[in-house]
Amino acid sequence: MKNINHQTSETISEVEKYICLCNNKLTNGVGVRKLKVTDYKNYISLLSQLTEVGNITKEIFTDRLREMEQNRYLYLYVMYNKRTDELIASGTVYIEPKFIHGCSKVGHIEDIVVNNNYRGKKYGQSIIKMLVKIAHIVGCYKVTLACKKRNVDFYEKCQFKQEGYEMVARL
Ligand SMILES: CC(C)(COP(=O)(O)OP(=O)(O)OC[C@H]1O[C@@H](n2cnc3c(N)ncnc32)[C@H](O)[C@@H]1OP(=O)(O)O)[C@@H](O)C(=O)NCCC(=O)NCCS
């Protein structure tokens, strides 16, 4: 069994090394990095292609980003155009520490979106692959996500399988 402890500085730097590797492998002037405060407008615009975002001021955005940066269980990455800094895709994997399976962990993938102008170029598949790999590096035994029926084929192409049912209580 791998890494049953909290996210250690060792596993965090393993993730950073992996992201560096991805950056070296990506072509066509595309990079991958963490979200920055200066992404504010572009990120809201990208997320609005996924769902309703609401009215978020730069101040609220900055506070939320700082809060997320402090959360060592949260990995949010964006793919971007290195020349223009335009955002191409984004996704998050949240690492849930468990007691079961020998104090293992589960990764939860959330908020996957690819910019309309860049769809159909395998960026969706790339960001999923990176998030799954991060979950593996930090010691997850599985990765889950919920999606609309229309995206099932996409996730199957990313090696996910349908298992069970998703239940939601709207609050
Ligand atoms: C779903 C989404 C992330 C796919 O991103 P993408 O970069 O266009 O997808 P990719 O180019 O990586 O596609 C990989 C494969 O999946 C297929 N695919 C992509 N989207 C698909 C869909 N909605 N239905 C069926 N197949 C799909 C592609 O044709 C490709 O197949 P191939 O390998 O046989 O050529 C993107 O369309 C998107 O952001 N949609 C709006 C937001 C959204 O619904 N997000 C998911 C929330 S759960």
**SS element count, helices:** 6
Largest sheet: 5 strands, mixed
Give me the side-by-side strand order of the main sheet. 1-2-3-4-5
How confident overall, as mean pLDDT?
A: 95
Instruction: Report the uncertain regions.
Output: none
Tell me the Rg in angstroms: 16 Å
**Secondary-structure class:** alpha+beta
Order of helices and strands: HEHHEEHEHEH
Proportion of residues in helical segments: 25-40%
CATH superfamily: Gcn5-related N-acetyltransferase (GNAT)
Total individual domains: 1
Tell me the name of the CATH class.
Alpha Beta
| Count of individual beta strands | 5
Strand content: 15-25%
Span of the ends, CA to CA: 37 Å
SSE blueprint:
Blueprint: H1 9-25, E1 30-34, H2 40-47, H3 58-70, E2 74-81, E3 87-97, H4 100-103, E4 105-114, H5 123-137, E5 140-144, H6 152-157
Bound molecules: coenzyme A (COA).
Coenzyme A binds at residues 49-50, 112-114, 119-125, 147, 150-151, 153-154, 157.
